[in-house]
């Protein structure tokens, strides 16, 4: 690591270096706690104990979060700017604007009634890294920048990664037209009214950030499942992020009938057909796991219409969603074909039909092997197991990796998962992950 005073600073004397040295990274913990507290106070949904936060993208709550982070950065002597997709950037003073940089990033939006740390932990970790560098006069041959990206969550509009896709000119008309779940208004309206977006540039697909400008993209995130708790890992490196195949709105269409009057052989029972399909796919899933393949399957929405269902009716319609995820694109495609085949068999045998909306999804992305090893090495140097844990959920790192930017993620354990108010990331675990990410960013030269 190269440590030297910033331009115009007074160089420390040899005696002061020997007796004091740079402040430990732990000195930034108070900054993190303050920002987390301000984010929660500004975006919690009620005053009830344990209330969640809601920070819909390109709306006032997300903007409050950006303002809080920007104010904290300025108080640390950092510079702030907003790009034409509305993303917030934090920089050390005097950065060479033409030099490729290491980017630490994540998002500040949340799902409805979500937790305070999902996404925000990564932005705060990047803020802490820059604050640590600023406080200790650390100057690097490769600049480090932090970005708070817009609209990572899919919960509000269906599509996601609006801020990172906007950077690379990849937002589509379908995404601009996507309607928010509660208001029915399209994304383009929220982006335009936010006052931070150059709509002409974004809709024209203008590239705001060239991939070659980014030396590497680093992202810290709370783990969104129970794996690290069960393995007793405070922090871990992510080797890959699962892609997915999805149907947001699908239906099994049968025929309503009287439950007491119609025998089994004359029924077109949509619920029984759904149960049949689910059990068939669950067995395929079990077999794939036994073969060592990575995959998860979820029917997150499944039910009859409360307006028409009844105890004495054979269900004629079941609405459902489908979410298939894997780190391997071949496994994704193979299992989706199994779904289509089994749906056709169930439809023929039970006299129903399956109606699907347009297929959606993202490709899986592998993290950069060199950076994965770098983060593992840093964790080992800090006295922690250099473990890896794949990500089952999508993250902005996928967008950067798909553009050819070397990318890596560090997970911090979180007992109750994410997307709910019960996120229980401890500050002790967070500090381990944040310091590991900062060390990886500050001293990448050794791994070149």
Fold and architecture overview:
There is one protein chain. This protein is of the alpha+beta class and 448 residues long. The chain has two domains: 14-242 and 365-447, Aminopeptidase, CATH 3.40.630; 243-362, 2-Layer Sandwich (Alpha-Beta Plaits), CATH 3.30.70. Helix content is 36%, strand content 18%. The chain is built from 14 helices and 17 strands. A seven-stranded mixed sheet has the order 1-2-4-3-5-17-6, sandwiched between helices. Helix 4 (120-136) packs across helix 14, helix 10 packs antiparallel against helix 11 (329-350) and helix 12 (369-381) packs across helix 14 (427-442). The longest helix is centred in the C-terminal third of the chain and has 22 residues, at 329-350. It is globular, with a radius of gyration of 24 Å. The protein starts with 13 loop residues before the first helix and ends in a 6-residue tail after the last helix. Residues 1-19 have low confidence and may be disordered.
